C-alpha cells in the first residue's frame, strides 16, 4: 500500500 | 524518528561538514565537482520550500536550514572564494541531461499536482542523480583525495540508512512513500561501486584510485 505525502523526512 | 533515520541524518550532516572543512582547511576545492554542488543546492531549495508552509518539528526545521545554508556556503567557496582552485576542466558533466529528465519525470509520476508537491518530487528525483557529476569527475581523473572519499562515503551511507528507515517505518507505521523509496534505492545503487572501492582501499589506508 503506497500512501501519499507525509514529508516529515529530510 | 527512529535510530536509522537519525544515523542517516547524522551521516548527511557529517558529509556536508567534511566537505566544507576540506575546502576551508586546504583553501582549495580541487577534485570537487561544482556541478554536483549546484544540483544539491537546487535539491535542498526545491525540497525545503515547505519551511514556509509546514512545521514538523524544531529538529526538522533546524536541519533544513543547516542543509540550505551549508549548500550555498559550499557554492560560495567553490565559485567565489576559492574559484582559482576549481578544477573546471574535469567538471564537464552536462547537468541538463539530469535536470530535464527529472523535470519530466516529476510531472509524470507525482503524488499530487500542487506546486510544493511537484517541487518535492523533483528534488527527490534530482537528489538520486545529483552525485553523478562528482562521480564522473572522479572517474575522469581516476582518483580522489582521501577526504573527498570520506565525504562521498558519508553522503552515500545517508540514503542507504534511509532505506533501512523506510523498511522500519513500513513495519511499525505501515507508512511507505513509493517515490522516495524507489529514488532512494537508485541513489544508493549509484554509490555501490564507490562503496566497494572505499571499503577495499581507503579503509585499509590506501589512496582512492580507480583500477587502470
What does this structure look like?
The complex is a heterodimer of chains A (10) and B (212). With 10 residues, chain A is low in regular secondary structure. In chain A, 0% of the residues lie in helices and 0% in strands. Chain A contains no helices and no strands. Chain A is elongated and about 20 Å long. The mean pLDDT of chain A is 76. Chain B is mainly α and 212 residues long. Chain B has one domain. Chain B contains nine helices and two strands, in the order ααααααβαααβ. In chain B, strands 1-2 form a two-stranded antiparallel sheet. In chain B, helix 1 (3-26) packs parallel to helix 3 and helix 7 (146-173) packs antiparallel against helix 8. The longest helix of chain B has 28 residues, at 146-173.
Brief summary:
Chain B: One of its GO terms (molecular function) is ER retention sequence binding. The complex is a heterodimer of chains A (10) and B (212). Chain A has 10 residues and is largely without helices or strands.
Average residue pLDDT of chain B: 96
- Let me know the largest β-sheet of chain B: 2 strands, antiparallel
Protein chains sharing the most extensive interface: A-B, 10 and 23 residues
Approximate shape of chain A = elongated
Keywords (chain B): Endoplasmic reticulum, ER-Golgi transport, Membrane, Protein transport, Receptor, Transmembrane, Transmembrane helix, Transport
Protein name (chain B): ER lumen protein-retaining receptor
Subcellular location (chain B): Endoplasmic reticulum membrane
Main location (chain B): endoplasmic reticulum
Keywords:
heterodimer; A: 10 residues; little secondary structure; B: 212 residues; mainly alpha; two-stranded antiparallel ribbon; 9 helices; ER retention sequence binding (chain B); transmembrane helix (chain B); endoplasmic reticulum (chain B)
Amino acid at each position: 500500500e503506497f500512501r501519499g505525502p507525509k514529508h516529515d523526512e529530510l | 524518528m527512529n535510530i536509522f533515520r537519525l544515523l542517516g541524518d547524522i551521516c548527511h550532516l557529517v558529509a556536508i561538514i567534511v566537505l566544507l572543512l576540506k575546502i576551508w582547511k586546504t583553501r582549495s576545492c580541487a577534485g570537487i565537482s561544482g556541478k554536483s554542488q549546484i544540483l544539491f543546492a537546487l535539491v535542498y531549495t526545491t525540497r525545503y520550500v515547505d519551511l514556509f508552509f509546514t512545521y514538523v518539528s524544531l529538529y526538522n526545521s533546524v536541519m533544513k536550514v543547516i542543509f540550505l545554508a551549508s549548500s550555498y556556503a559550499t557554492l560560495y567557496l567553490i565559485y567565489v572564494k576559492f574559484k582559482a582552485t576549481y578544477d573546471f576542466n574535469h567538471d564537464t558533466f552536462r547537468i541538463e541531461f539530469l535536470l530535464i529528465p527529472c523535470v519530466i519525470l516529476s510531472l509524470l509520476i507525482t503524488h499530487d499536482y500542487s506546486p510544493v508537491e511537484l517541487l518535492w518530487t523533483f528534488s527527490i528525483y534530482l537528489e538520486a542523480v545529483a552525485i553523478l557529476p562528482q562521480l564522473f569527475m572522479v572517474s575522469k581523473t581516476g582518483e580522489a583525495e582521501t577526504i573527498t572519499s570520506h565525504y562521498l562515503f558519508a553522503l552515500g551511507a545517508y540514503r542507504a540508512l534511509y532505506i533501512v528507515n523506510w523498511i522500519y517505518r513500513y513495519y511499525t507505521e505501515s507508512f511507505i512513500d513509493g517515490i522516495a523509496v524507489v529514488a532512494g534505492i537508485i541513489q544508493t545503487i549509484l554509490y555501490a561501486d564507490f562503496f566497494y572501492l572505499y571499503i577495499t582501499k581507503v579503509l585499509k589506508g590506501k589512496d582512492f584510485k580507480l583500477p587502470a
